[in-house]
Specification:
- The complex is a heterodimer.
- Chain A is elongated.
- Helix content of chain A is 52%, strand content 0%.
- Chain A is mainly alpha-helical.
- In chain A, helix 1 crosses helix 2 and helix 1 packs across helix 3.
- Chain A contains 3 helices and no strands.
- By secondary structure, chain B is of the alpha/beta class.
- Chain B has 12 helices and 14 strands.
- Chain B starts with a strand and ends with a strand.
- The longest helix of chain B is centred in the first third of the chain and has 17 residues.
- In chain B, the strands form 2 sheets. In chain B, strands 1, 2, 3, 4, 5, 6, 7, 8, 9, 11, 13 and 14 form a 12-stranded mixed beta sheet that branches. Chain B has a two-stranded antiparallel ribbon with strand order 10-12.
- Chain B is globular, with a radius of gyration of 20 Å.
- The chains are: A mainly alpha, B alpha/beta.
- At the A-B interface, helix 2 of A face loops of B.
């Protein structure tokens, strides 16, 4: 499995990327993870969450705020949703700056 | 009567060998691991060092765990595995709260600090890895050992520069004598050969230009090394009861502070630590056969250490042999005492003094019988291992052959 960590690649499918990152961190087969899988079911520990957040921040060049961090995410889908929102906010911010 | 404490297992990873046997064989052969390996492209940091070459963490650790472990912690864990295996101890048959884990380190995870701060202070102001703090903390090597072996007794790092390991062992012995712990996993770990570290050592003017030549003419300074040595130490009665290998008795420990200067050592402070170790072990100076010297190869240390041995041992100083194995493995700072205890254990086991490598001829200010050239065969019953650190901190161990 290869996961791009190139910041400029801007992978479009957050769901696949999030699942791949989680699977890589946990050393499990990504095929066993779907969006409704809970982090608890995957035995994700706080240390794993910190690593997962760090990887996603690197890939998308975003910063996951503490209140959004994996500590309050229950499922894989929650992680995807947070990433989507932060990516959107970043794109909007950049568009606004371009207009301004 | 004082509780008798023995070493039942030892493990080492050092520039001259991974594992006790390779380490010992290279020492006996006097084969130095010091190399001019060109540290980067910058003349400011280009001087000889002794690295653990060809080290691949993935040979020892799960890939997921590697980003969480500083090189010093990796070394400590690897050495601890060997020590535990060799001791034959089964920790799951013991009360885990009765095993202390105390690991000396002079500097801690400076490789992690160096890499993170380089990125942060550099033009890109890179995002630091979230495990930077738990990786760089000085107690990480000790903590990692408790986690791997599920040991829940007192655990902490000891830091006294180049005397860190000997202080760690001394403290462990005192905890055991005091009934605070029944046994201990102790030693030292250091991995501080980074570009930044090489830059900051240089202006101190203690680094050798060519190589490390302790107690020799033409000595010009020390050479940085790295590595870890970890030991399982137990009560003699416990060790006998479980039929453990007994490598040596830690008969006495001595500690002192010079209280004079932050880098310049004193003869009086070093001599006092030696005398205290002898007194603690009930050992007469006349019983000392051999000393594994601190022997850094600096102009000042070797002369002061020679005088300190004369002062502490009196006429017996003329009868002992000394050696400095730093000429082979470099100066591993906080792990120095650990690598050197491994050397002493080999000497006690085999009756062989490894030579001080790179030795040209005796220096006028170092008039003790420093073994050089070939290793010397000699029965050794009682040996000292000296460590004297920056800050004027001294710790000496007195080791006795058992049986």
């Amino acid at each position: 499995m290869t996961v791009s960590t190139n910041k400029t690649s801007n992978p479009s499918d957050s769901s696949t990327v999030v699942i791949d990152i989680i699977a890589k961190e946990l050393g499990i087969d990504p095929a066993t993870v779907i969006e409704t899988t809970t982090l608890e079911e995957l035995d994700v520990e706080s240390l794993d969450l910190i690593q997962i957040c760090f990887e996603l921040e690197e890939i998308y060049d975003i910063e996951i705020p503490y209140e959004d961090s994996a500590f309050v995410m229950d499922s894989v889908g929650d992680v995807v949703e947070v990433i989507e929102r932060l990516r959107h906010a970043k794109t909007s911010g950049e568009a606004l700056r371009r207009v301004g | 009567m004082t509780l008798r404490i023995v070493v039942t297992g030892a493990g080492v990873i050092a520039p001259n060998g991974t594992g006790i046997e390779e380490f010992w064989d290279t020492l006996v052969a006097g084969r130095t691991a010091i190399k001019h390996d060109g540290n980067g492209t910058d003349d400011n940091a280009r001087y000889p060092v002794a690295r653990v070459a060809g080290f691949h963490p993935e040979d020892h650790f799960d890939a997921r765990r590697i980003p969480l472990l500083d090189r010093a912690s990796q070394f400590a864990i690897i050495a601890a595995r060997e020590a535990v295996t060799r001791s034959g101890i089964e920790f799951d048959r013991q009360d885990p709260s009765q095993t202390a884990v105390i690991v000396g380190t002079g500097i801690g995870g400076i490789g992690t600090t160096d890499a993170a701060f380089k990125g942060i202070y550099g033009p890109e102001n890179t995002r630091p890895h979230p495990m930077t703090v738990p990786k760089l903390m000085a107690n990480a090597p000790a903590s990692c050992i408790t986690i791997e072996h599920a040991l829940t007794g007192p655990c902490f790092a000891v830091s006294s520069a180049c005397a860190s390991t000997n202080h760690a062992i001394a403290i462990a012995v005192l905890l055991m004598r005091g009934g605070v712990a029944r046994r201990a996993v102790v030693g030292g770990a250091e991995a501080s050969i980074t570009y930044g570290a090489l830059r900051v050592w240089k202006p101190l003017r203690v680094m050798a230009k060519d190589t490390c030549r302790p107690f020799s003419s033409a000595r010009s300074g020390m050479v940085l090394g790295e590595g870890a040595g970890i030991f399982v130490i137990e009560r003699l009665d416990d060790a006998r009861e479980r039929g453990a290998p007994i490598l040596a008795e830690i008969a006495g420990v001595g500690m002192s502070a010079d209280a004079k200067a932050i880098v310049l050592p004193t003869e009086a402070g070093a001599a006092r630590a030696i005398s205290l170790a002898l007194e603690d072990g009930g050992i007469a100076p006349e019983s000392v056969d051999h000393v594994n010297a601190h022997g850094t190869g600096t102009i000042v240390n070797d002369a002061i250490e020679t005088r300190a041995l004369h002062r502490a041992l009196g006429g017996q100083a003329r009868n002992i042999t000394i050696t400095s194995t730093k000429a082979v493995h470099g100066h591993a700072l906080g792990a120095a005492g650990a690598l050197e205890l491994c050397a002493v254990l080999g000497t006690l086991r085999d009756g062989v003094i490894p030579p001080t490598a790179n030795f040209i001829e005796p220096a006028p200010d170092c008039d003790l019988d420093c073994v050089h050239g070939d290793a010397r065969r000699m029965a050794v019953r009682t040996a000292l291992s000296n460590s004297f650190g920056f800050g004027g901190l001294n710790a000496v161990l007195a080791l006795r052959k058992m049986g």
